[in-house]
């Protein structure tokens, strides 16, 4: 999902960008990753900005949180 979000950002496709952020938000809420869901929601509602660097920074922060959440969920599965 992060890759799809990055692709939409690179293409400056606002609708796809919003849709991928929305899907990620929904999945995060399902798994209880509320912080990640909140970040996704900000991206979803904020849409693309005129400053692409601002959007890239937001997606990079989202990807970082996603990595942390994924590792925590894997840890729960093993425990």
Cα radius of gyration in angstroms = 13 Å
| Count of β-strands | 0
Question: What form results from the Cα inertia axes?
Answer: elongated
Total domain modules:
1
Structural class: mainly alpha
Bin the strand percentage: under 5%
Fraction of residues in helix: over 70%
Could you give the distance between the termini? 26 Å
Largest sheet: none
Mean pLDDT: 94
Number of helices: 4
Pick out the low-confidence regions.
none
The sequence of SSEs as H and E is: HHHH
Q: What's a quick, concise take on this entry?
A:
By secondary structure, the protein is mainly alpha-helical. It has 4 helices and no strands.
Please give a structural write-up.
The mean pLDDT is 94. It is elongated and about 40 Å long. It has 79 residues and is mostly helical. The chain has helices at residues 2-11, 14-30, 34-46, 52-78. 85% of the residues lie in helices and 0% in strands. The N and C termini lie far apart (26 Å). Helix 1 (2-11) runs antiparallel to helix 2.
